[in-house]
Specification:
81% helix, 180 residues, 0% strand, mainly alpha
């Protein structure tokens, strides 16, 4: 879960259900799986929060102006993310932890707007706990059926990774710096 937040293409939607399944098989404790997943997730978002806080909005916007095509983000999108976070506050951080990709990226605007660290970590912990518990308990509930559906999971995981790469390439190719 730590690496999922540092290197976003690693999907927790595959990691946590598998760990839950292994718990159902008696190979791990479901409580330890959920707590370890939550802890790893929190550790993985901290560098992004501190990056946003240390670099600040103006420098991140300049970075987007210079390298926006490769980052696939425009200054307008950075402004919009910061505005949304200011408008919705810590609740956006909590619910953002449940949405793939957003769960990592929401940390940067939280740092940019200088959300108090303990508020950020507290709401992130609640959201991460809900997300990891839901995924792990889903895998736990599958129990023996996991072997049956694993033939479907592998192609879906591959399709998700291919989709991420295709979407990134699409964003790079169609990037319009005038959207700044």
């Amino acid at each position: 879960m730590f690496l999922e937040n540092i290197v976003p293409p690693i999907p927790s939607e595959l990691i946590m259900p598998l760990a839950g399944y292994r718990s159902a098989q008696g190979q791990m404790s479901i409580i330890v799986v959920i707590l370890a997943g939550t802890f790893g997730s929190i550790l993985g978002i901290l560098p992004w929060y501190w990056l946003g806080r240390a670099v600040g909005k103006n420098r991140i916007i300049r970075l987007a102006l210079r390298h926006g095509r490769w980052l696939t983000v425009t200054p307008r999108e950075i402004d919009a993310a910061a505005d949304q976070l200011e408008r919705h506050g810590a609740a956006a951080v909590l619910w953002g932890r449940l949405v793939p990709t957003v769960r990592t990226l929401i940390s940067i605007p939280a740092g940019i707007i200088e959300m108090p660290f303990l508020v950020f970590v507290g709401y992130s912990a609640i959201g991460s706990l809900l997300g990891t518990a839901g995924l792990a308990l889903g895998g736990y509930a599958l129990g023996q059926a996991y072997d049956t559906i694993s033939g479907f999971v592998d192609p879906v995981a591959t399709a998700v990774l291919v989709g991420i790469v295709v979407f990134y390439v699409y964003r790079v190719v169609t990037f319009d710096p005038k959207r700044t």
